[in-house]
Write a structure and sequence with these properties.
Bound molecules: S-adenosylmethionine
Number of helices: 14
Order of helices and strands: EEEEEHHHHEHEHEEHEHHHHHHEHE
CATH topology of the largest domain: Rossmann fold
Strand order of the largest sheet: 8-7-6-9-10-12-11
CATH superfamily of the largest domain: Vaccinia Virus protein VP39
Distance between the termini: 32 Å
CATH class of the largest domain: Alpha Beta
Structural class: alpha/beta
Largest sheet: 7 strands, mixed
Number of strands: 12
């Protein structure tokens, strides 16, 4: 944790300032262990392994704690010499580097930090929050950078003042909470007026029919067992290439089809394990933007053609 983040943090219980307790460890300008104390209500929040922690457990996101620590490097451009995450970020948000340069940006549900990495390389100052222990993976990946801050917190109770951020995004996160719309509405107050919010939310579609049935079982299986079972995606990729038979196999047991075998494994685990996985329609998401006071709402093309992917961005009035 960098000391400069303190100016943006407040106590999530009473909204007052936090100060660093006297006993702390520091290494390379990072507070690695210590405690944050609320100057008003005296609540305390630990800093563990460089990350301020505003929650006691990872509640319903334990599958993500497992996933992002196991697959911590798979989707990181910098570690794989690719630009896959950067290209994905561009089409999911519609932003270009000049839109985020010098801005304070909130990544709601940072995971292992693949998109926070992009924002930081584009010159934005990014705060990545996540409820799960994915924050440990994100901190290892990018936490030491001067313009990156990783925080473990619940998006329903964030440790920031309202209207703090120039821009915000939440990619593949809100539909993994108990209530997607409530999650959307919960984070909007932290965006400044005139700021933009970009979201990626799963779309509803007939092609999820069989995986929704499988999920009734897979979400109840032990995480470690699901880790091994999802590796079935690695060989199934070749079977899916067989004409006709491959299409039927993919429809009955959908698995990820990335050329990189580790992405296939990760994305299949990511699909079958989360406790919550809501799907929506784009008019539904559009209405949330309207209701929350956004203008210039855009649905990105890939979202339109895919419909299983809703990528939308708006400007707060
Ligand atoms: C599919 S992952 C996406 C991670 C990242 N945005 C990406 O695209 O790589 C969903 C993330 O949402 C986080 N999440 C779910 N509910 C949350 C909440 N209430 N507060 C903060 N993060 C949450 C999970 O812990 C998980 O890391």
């Amino acid at each position: 944790m960098k000391l400069k983040i303190l100016k943006h943090l407040v106590c999530p219980s009473c909204n007052e300032e936090l100060r660093l307790g006297e006993d702390y460890n520091e290494k390379d300008n990072e507070i690695t262990e210590g405690v944050l104390i609320c100057v008003n209500c005296k609540s305390t929040y630990k800093i563990i392994k460089g990350v301020p922690r505003f929650i006691d457990t990872d509640k319903y996101v334990d599958t993500f704690s497992f996933e992002w620590n196991k697959f911590h490097d798979v989707q990181m451009d910098i570690l794989n010499d690719t630009d896959e995450s950067e290209r994905t970020f561009k089409w999911k948000t519609g932003w270009k580097p000049e839109d985020l340069k010098g801005k304070l940006v909130l990544d709601v549900g940072v995971g292992a930090g693949r998109f926070a990495d992009v924002v930081s390389r584009w010159g934005g100052e990014v705060i990545g929050i996540d409820l799960s222990y994915a924050v440990d993976a994100a901190y290892k990946n990018i936490g030491a950078r001067e313009n990156v801050h990783i925080i473990q917190a619940d998006l329903f109770n964030l440790p920031f003042r309202h209207e703090t951020f120039d821009h915000m995004y939440s990619i593949g996160v809100l539909h993994h909470t108990p209530d997607t719309k409530k999650a959307f509405m919960a984070v909007v107050p932290y965006l400044k007026k005139g700021g933009e919010f970009a979201v990626f939310i799963y779309g509803r579609g007939y092609h999820h029919y069989f995986s929704d049935i499988w999920r009734k079982i897979t979400t109840k299986l032990p995480i470690r067992l699901m880790y091994y079972l999802s590796s079935i995606a690695i060989p199934l990729y070749y079977i899916h290439k067989i004409p006709f038979f491959g299409k039927v196999a993919q429809a009955l047991l959908p698995t990820a089809n990335w050329p990189d075998w580790r992405w296939r494994w990760l994305d299949t685990f990511d699909w079958y394990t989360p406790k919550y996985q809501w799907k929506h329609t784009w008019p539904e998401v559009f209405k949330w933007f309207k209701e929350a006071g956004f203008t210039e709402i855009e649905l990105f093309e890939e979202g339109l053609s895919g419909l299983s992917q809703i990528c939308m961005r708006g400007k707060k009035l």
